[in-house]
Write a structure and sequence with these properties.
Layout: E1 2-4, E2 16-19, E3 22-25, H1 30-42, E4 46-48, H2 56-59, H3 64-81, H4 104-110, H5 123-142, E5 147-150, H6 172-184, E6 187-191, H7 198-204, E7 210-217, E8 242-247, H8 253-270, E9 274-279, H9 296-307, E10 313-317, H10 326-337
Parallel strand pairs: 1-4, 1-5, 5-10, 6-7, 6-9, 7-8, 9-10
Antiparallel strand pairs: 2-3
The structure holds zinc ion.
Length: about 350
């Protein structure tokens, strides 16, 4: 399988993360992508570089002011603060936001929803090329391949139309799905990351041409907390085109596959022309952020079941952190996708 990756994606390397009252090492490290890339190359998959598909497909799903902010935030921050510490917001709009202010410190709070997405010198390059890797995978599939994998890192599915959230800045899978929808018509986006794809849900909530189906741990007491509930089903032309299948914390593999069966049935009923998969590996039992118990054999089975839909498929990397099975699960999923 073609695996799309660009070295510039490694230029975002956040050091710390404020979690439950403590500063801890940031889980979203460049090493994640290096481990996956090297394991896939070792297993015989072909690593390819993305072409530059430009900003147009990014603007198609993101607010232009937000994208402009991300592209310029770092030099503005250095100039405004006289410092090169990572840009983390200390001011938040809450629910009473009205407009982005002119100054970078306030704008940082406006375009961020949490403190998990520090902007550093290399952030724009990393997130831009992460999105381009997803777009290149979409272009490979639109060109006739059955499947391609965008090794997108930093991840994307928590990124809203106009704000960063949960380690995510640009919503790579949504950008790829938007580009596919333009080319082929109806697209289903299946999200099997262990966290709800709140950003993706937000972006497609009122669209009837993209079905968003997500399996994830119940957000009642788990990130992203504020979205991803089963009674959120879409709006306007998108009504009935969002399906949230929540897993209880501690859910075993049988419970996960019960939801996956429901997801695949819903996708088949939608009759899309193509599929985008937000492929997180953080359902793995040994993932540091996991609350459910997926095994490597489970990832193999999930790959075969998803491939069984028989749809042209763009795989886009999401979460999956530095646990012992991360690279092994990626190899297992991609290998078995070919058998489905
Ligand atoms: Zn996740």
């Amino acid at each position: 399988m073609k695996v799309v990756f660009d070295e510039r994606q490694l230029l975002h390397a956040p050091a710390q993360y404020f979690r439950r009252g403590q500063m801890i090492d940031h889980p979203e490290q460049p090493q994640r992508a290096i481990l996956i890339r090297d394991a896939l190359a070792g297993a015989g998959h072909e690593i390819v570089q993305p072409a530059d598909h430009g900003l147009e497909p990014i603007h198609a799903v993101h607010d232009r002011g937000y994208v402009d902010f991300l592209a310029t935030a770092w030099p503005r921050w250095v100039e405004a603060t006289g410092s090169t510490v990572p840009a983390v917001p200390n001011y938040h709009t809450g629910r009473r936001q009205s407009r982005p202010p002119a100054g970078v410190v306030g704008a940082l709070g406006y375009y961020s929803t949490d403190t998990a997405c520090p902007v550093t010198e290399g952030t724009w390059q990393a997130i831009y090329w992460s999105a381009q890797s997803a777009l290149e995978a979409a272009a490979i599939v639109a060109g006739g391949a059955r499947v391609a994998y965008g090794l997108s890192r930093p991840p994307g599915h928590h990124a809203y139309r106009d704000a960063s959230n949960g380690f995510c800045f640009l919503n790579n899978a949504a950008i790829a799905a938007g580009a596919m929808a333009d080319r082929v018509g109806k697209v289903a986006l299946l999200d099997i990351d262990t966290h709800a794809g709140n950003g993706t849900q937000d972006i497609f909530y009122a669209r009837g041409d993209v079905l968003y189906v997500s399996l994830h741990v119940d957000p009642s007491d788990y990130p992203p907390y504020y979205m991803g509930y089963p009674d959120e089903t879409g709006d306007g032309p998108g009504l009935g085109h969002t399906l949230n299948l929540a897993l209880p914390p501690g859910c075993d593999e049988a419970g996960i596959f019960d939801r996956l069966d429901q997801a695949l049935t819903a996708i088949a009923r939608f009759s899309p022309q193509a599929l985008v998969v937000s492929l997180g590996f953080d359902m793995a039992a040994d993932d540091p952020l996991s609350e459910v118990g997926m095994t490597t054999d489970g990832f193999r089975r999930a790959a075969r079941d998803i491939a069984g839909l028989g749809l042209p498929t763009v795989l886009v990397q999401e979460g999956g952190y530095l646990g012992p099975s991360l690279a092994r699960n990626a190899v297992a999923f991609l290998d078995d996708y070919g058998l489905g």
